[in-house]
C-alpha cells in the first residue's frame, strides 16, 4: 500500500500525517516536546466504502514501525466508545485506561 507522509514542525513539537495514496485512509501522529518518547495517535479514518479491507490496520502498524524507528516507547490515543472501534484497538494491543469526556483513553507500550 502506497502511503503519503506529511511532516510538520511546530513550536510545541512535530506531527506526521499518513494518508493512503488513494485517500481512502488517514491517521495523524503527534509528538510533543514536553512528552518525549510518546506519540499521540488521532484522526484514524477510513472512508466507509473501503472499510474492512485492512487499511486501518496497515496505517496503525505503519505508525508503530515509524515510532519504533524514532525511539518512541509509548503510543496513546482516545477512542470513541463504539464496541467495534474499541475491539479494533484491543486487537492491536491497546489497553484502556479510563473514560473521560466521552472517549476511552488507551495506550500501548512498544517493545
Task: Describe this entry's structure for a reader.
This protein has helices spanning 55-69, 83-91, and strands spanning 3-10, 13-20, 25-32, 38-46, 74-80, 95-100, 103-109. With 111 residues, it is an alpha+beta fold. It has a 7-stranded mixed beta sheet, covered by helices on one side. It is globular and about 35 Å long.
Structure described in brief:
The protein is of the alpha+beta class and 111 residues long. The chain has helices at residues 55-69, 83-91, and strands at residues 3-10, 13-20, 25-32, 38-46, 74-80, 95-100, 103-109.
| Number of beta strands | 7
Uncertain residue segments: none
Average pLDDT figure:
97
Strand content: over 45%
Q: Total domains, how many?
A: 1
- The helix-and-strand class reads alpha+beta
Tell me which CATH architecture applies here. Answer: 3-Layer(aba) Sandwich
Put simply, the count of helices is 2
CATH C-level:
Alpha Beta
Question: What is the CA-CA span between the terminal residues?
Answer: 24 Å
Order of helices and strands: EEEEHEHEE
* Share of helix, binned: 10-25%
Shape from CA axes?
A: globular
Largest sheet descriptor: 7 strands, mixed
Rg result: 14 Å
CATH topology: Aminopeptidase
CATH superfamily: Gcn5-related N-acetyltransferase (GNAT)
Spatially, the strands of the biggest sheet line up as 1-2-3-4-5-7-6
